[in-house]
Amino acid sequence: MSLVNQIVTIPLFQDLPQKDLKDLTAIVIHQVFKRAQIIFSEGDEGKGFYVVISGRVKIFKLSPEGKEQILHIFGPGEPFGEVPVFAGKCFPANAEAIEKSRLFYFPRDAFFDLINKSPSLAMNMLAVLSKRLHQFTALIEDLSLKEVPGRLAAYLIYLSEQQKSTDDLTLDISKSQLASLLGTIPETLSRILARMTREAIIESDGQRHIRILDLKLLEKLASGEVRLSK
Amino acid sequence: MSLVNQIVTIPLFQDLPQKDLKDLTAIVIHQVFKRAQIIFSEGDEGKGFYVVISGRVKIFKLSPEGKEQILHIFGPGEPFGEVPVFAGKCFPANAEAIEKSRLFYFPRDAFFDLINKSPSLAMNMLAVLSKRLHQFTALIEDLSLKEVPGRLAAYLIYLSEQQKSTDDLTLDISKSQLASLLGTIPETLSRILARMTREAIIESDGQRHIRILDLKLLEKLASGEVRLSK
Predict the structure, then answer these.
(1) CB contact under 8 A, A83 and B127
(2) Of B61, B86, B121, which closes a domain?
């Protein structure tokens, strides 16, 4: 896969014009970390940020007694360290590969130069991040306002926007986590998925893959215009 | 209140250095819209974006038959129109004040000039937006992984980060919406709030105002380290 094709799959850079993507390929550095290898340490100057291409990275703090507290685990497509790097601060925690991981590294100086030369890259990235924030806000509101089938519909639409596809959606959390997120139990979630499948709204492999067959109807379910029959 | 003090309360600009805030005050235009006044129409060139200072604004589309579909309602502190404006596109929907509304308007050309002159403003805004995205992601994960008291704790911590205060948090949704978001019913939510009050973790006015008394304990509840006694 070409570098541009890899970069365009990163949500942080999604929707960027081809020119911006090409500019980014000129500064990205491909890095590979072994399992248990430290990527950066708390207090290090934020000289650049990372995006996970494959593998997993844990972000953690150490207590004065040396006890490890994991703050977050990042997987493919996810950026980390970018908040302090954009803000010109030190890293507030440690990062370590928990398995062999391929990362894209964007040095701050080179990234800053890019923005300096091409302010439209900054504007476009602001657009990408603002759009994702609106999607998240809408998701959180949707989750709080609807019945379970409507919430599931809203979640699937959100996923299809995120993954830019209706053909092969991959649930990014387990079914029991999804049930919990939707405020229900896995059994109810399975029943609703089965009903949506029967009505030819979606197709599900019973695992994490879902295909949207009738987006219009799904949108109506999400907006509450129609309800799923029992 | 000074313009800088007003701008710093807008989440889109939170955490920006004083210099950036001052630069923004130089380009902002204060606008007042009457109830039912159109702010922009679908297809208009995105010449600038808005932040609601007071009042409420609805974003809507019109069907070919003229039927109105409301996509979103924005209130104080919330930006709108910034995604197409950052991306240099036309507005994809209409905006109308649903009550008398005071707005801050940021013209695109002036904003672009600012970024052009001061790329660090762009970097700092990218940091702000990235940080909010991480907070949102964490909230969504938290909501899907914890028992109801832990979820409530996670939500209150999220609110205190958003509102930069532990002293007077204002729930931004109704209690029944919050109950639904946490996957429970209003009665259970009220019981948990009462228990947290009894244990001096929070203080609640029974309405939308909450004060965090013991943030450490709330964090332990959210992380699952401790559980609320019955």
Answers:
(1) yes
(2) B121
Q: Are residues A117 and A153 in the same domain?
A: no
Q: Chain A contact for B148, CB < 8 A? A: no
CB-CB neighbors (< 8 A) of B115 in chain A = 119, 122-123
Instruction: Please count the structural domains in chain A.
Output: 2
Query: What is the pTM assigned to this prediction?
Result: 0.71
User: Which CATH number goes with the domain that contains A190?
Assistant: 1.10.10.10
Q: Does the pLDDT of residue B185 top 90, yes or no? A: no
Residue A133, in any domain of the structure: no
Q: Is residue B127 part of a domain?
A: no
Considering only CB atoms, which chain A residues are within 8 Å of B182? 183
CATH number of the domain where residue A62 is located:
2.60.120.10
User: Which range is most confident: B95-99, B125-129, B167-171?
Assistant: B95-99
* Phi, psi angles (nearest 5°) of residue B161: -70, -45
**Residue B142, pLDDT score:** 66
Chain A closest-CA separation from residue B21 CA (Å): 15
> Stretch B181-191: mean pLDDT, rounded?
80
Using CB atoms, pick whichever of B12, B124, B180 lies closest to residue A144.
B180
**Domain check: are A65 and A150 in the same one?**
no
- Identify the pLDDT of residue B29: 96
> pLDDT value at position B145?
62
For chain A, say whether B38 makes contact (Cβ under 8 Å): no
| Residues A132-164 pLDDT 10s | 888 877 777 666 666 788 888 888 888 888 777
Residue B99: pLDDT over 80: yes
The answer to whether B87 contacts A124, with C-beta atoms less than 8 Å apart, is yes
Nearest to A145 among B112, B131, B180 (CB): B180
Residues B152 and B116 occupy one common structural domain:
no
Look at residue B144 and tell me whether its pLDDT is greater than 70. no
**Chain A hits for B77, Cβ within 8 Å:** none
B89 in a structural domain: yes
Same domain, B116 and B7: yes
Of all residues in chain A, the one with the smallest CA distance to B125 is: A126
- Domain match, B179 and B74 both: no
Domain of A26? Answer: 3-121
Report CB contact under 8 Å: A126, B86: yes
Q: Does residue A25 surpass a pLDDT of 70?
A: yes
Whole-angstrom distance, CA of residue B189 vs CA of residue B182:
9
A68 and A33 share one domain: yes
User: DSSP secondary-structure letter at B35?
Assistant: T
Test B126 with A129 for CB contact under 8 angstroms. yes
Contact B180 A132 (CB under 8 A): no
